[in-house]
């Protein structure tokens, strides 16, 4: 069983007992957090897709620790001008472990009443395309294209 969930503005594919690094969360270390914005849910081959999220579904997680990511070097240079700037950045991250995926949301089932509705549309007259304008006999035929010819 896995789910695609939106955490801190990013989408993650998560499953039970998986550790994930996400952008810094306001929760304290050791606290539990629940994510309600579940976009897709796969329960042993049964896929439920939300529009945009599945109502009633949630992902439960536990905050393990807050840390910083690896340093990313930002280097700017303009040639022949003597301009160089070197900056570093370390992103603030939170490590969480997924404890469970709750799928209490109502699953959308295909209604059997939809089939007669399709038949009803087939019985209705289809829209006819507008007829193309026919060439009138009064209109003069187009002159042939002129090509450049060299006379010798």
UniProtKB/TrEMBL annotation:
- Say if the entry is tagged with keyword DNA damage: no
**What segments bear the compositional bias annotation Basic residues?**
143-152
Single GO MF annotation: structural constituent of ribosome
Q: Which GO annotations describe the biological process of this protein?
A: translation
The record's annotation in Pfam families points to: Ribosomal_L21p
For this record, the Gene Ontology CC terms, alphabetical, are: cytoplasm; ribonucleoprotein complex; ribosome
Question: Would the keyword RNA-binding be found if you checked this record's keyword annotation?
Answer: yes
Q: Where is this region: Disordered?
A: 112-152
Q: Which InterPro entries match?
A: bL21-like, bL21-like_sf, Ribosomal_bL21, Ribosomal_bL21_CS
Tell me, how does this one assemble? Part of the 50S ribosomal subunit. Contacts protein L20.
What is stated as this protein's family in its record?
A: Belongs to the bacterial ribosomal protein bL21 family.
- The protein's name in its UniProt record: Large ribosomal subunit protein bL21
Species per Swiss-Prot/TrEMBL record? Flavobacterium fontis
């Amino acid at each position: 069983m896995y789910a695609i969930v939106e955490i801190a503005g990013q989408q993650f594919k998560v499953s039970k007992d998986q550790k994930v690094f996400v952008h810094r969360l306001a929760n304290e270390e050791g606290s539990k957090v629940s994510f309600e914005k579940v976009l897709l849910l796969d329960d042993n081959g049964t896929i439920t897709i939300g529009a945009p999220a599945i109502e009633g579904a949630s992902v439960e997680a536990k905050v393990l620790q807050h840390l910083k990511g690896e340093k990313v070097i930002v280097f700017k240079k303009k040639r022949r001008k003597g301009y160089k700037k070197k900056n570093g950045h370390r992103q603030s991250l939170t490590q969480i472990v997924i404890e469970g995926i709750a799928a209490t949301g109502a699953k959308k089932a295909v209604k059997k009443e939809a089939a007669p509705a399709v038949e009803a549309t087939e019985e209705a007259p289809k829209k006819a395309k507008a007829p193309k304008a026919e060439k009138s006999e009064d209109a003069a035929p187009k002159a042939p294209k002129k090509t450049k010819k060299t006379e010798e």
